[in-house]
Design a protein that fits this description.
single chain, alpha/beta, Purple Acid Phosphatase, chain A, domain 2, six-stranded mixed beta sheet, 20% helix
């Protein structure tokens, strides 16, 4: 049981789950990597107040993929779990496959919702452009966000979305980034200083940028990461760099975001040797 006075929001993103036994990109079985991430979240010394998955939950949005995803996420059943779609997902099937997740069923065409997580307000914003890899925020989605923010003035807010609303300098990913609505989103956020963080997926890397008077960030994936190559014409490529997830902790005054390695490692060991403190 978490007796900490803090609110802990765990973020996992881009698991890209396929049907059991199927390989993503013909090379990687993503399921064991998500299993490891889930086990790592459950092994945290402080129990998260909730877990949010910021898109690309599956590779093609197929019913069998979502069924496999549900099995892999089942160990988290004791925690509030929030899902949102990415460009690899299918909104209608996501809602069907996770019908018990009532927060997914509102929002009309878009999978958008606002929920309380401990002392935080989590607002999920749908950036999906069906059939496209890039993201978009239309006037309808932006107006919904403005209304939601107006109702929670004074509350610390985390906005979760799949496509990051900023240039990452990874050229091939920026070509499929948030291509519509980023400037309008930044103006909205700037009008609401209680937005503590914008947390995103899509990039399979940890990136942090000043945006609209707050911080916008992306998160590594449980499995494969986008290759770090800042040449504008760099090829589209992925690597098996060490996976990770994020912990966003609200201490009552500010949000502190940590990057946590996915996996079980040796330690912790005390900073002592023969009874003496070693600095």
């Amino acid at each position: 049981m978490n007796t900490s006075p803090y609110t802990f929001l765990a973020q996992i993103t881009d698991p890209h789950i396929r049907e059991p036994g199927r390989l993503a990109y013909g090379r990687i079985n993503t399921a064991p990597y998500l299993e490891r991430a889930v086990a790592s979240v459950l092994a945290l010394r402080q129990r998260p107040s909730a877990v949010v998955l910021t898109g690309d939950l599956t590779d093609f949005g197929r019913p069998a993929e979502y069924a496999h995803l549900a099995e892999l996420l089942a160990p988290l059943s004791g925690l509030p779990l929030y899902l949102l779609p990415g460009n690899h997902d299918e909104r209608v099937q996501l809602r069907r496959s996770f019908a018990a997740h009532t927060y997914l069923q509102g929002g009309g065409e878009y999978v958008q919702y606002s929920v309380k997580v401990g002392l935080l307000r989590l607002i999920a914003l749908d950036t999906v452009a069906p059939g496209q890899s890039h993201g978009e925020l239309c006037a309808t989605r932006l107006a919904w966000l403005e209304r939601e923010l107006a109702t929670c003035r004074g509350e610390p807010v985390v906005i979760a979305m799949h496509h990051p609303p900023f240039r990452t300098l990874i050229g091939h990913m920026d070509k499929i980034g948030l291509l519509k609505g980023a400037a309008e989103l930044e103006a909205i956020v700037a009008r609401h200083p209680n937005v503590e963080r914008i947390i995103c997926g899509h990039l399979h890397r940890a990136i942090d940028v000043r945006f609209g008077g707050t911080i916008a960030s992306t998160c590594p994936a449980p499995g494969h990461q986008v290759a770090l190559d800042l040449q504008p014409d760099a090829p589209s490529a992925w690597m098996l760099e060490p996976p990770a997830f994020r912990i966003h902790a609200w201490d009552g005054a500010r949000l502190v975001s940590h990057l946590a390695a996915s996996g079980i490692f040796e330690g912790p060991y005390p900073f002592h040797e023969n009874g003496m403190l070693i600095d």
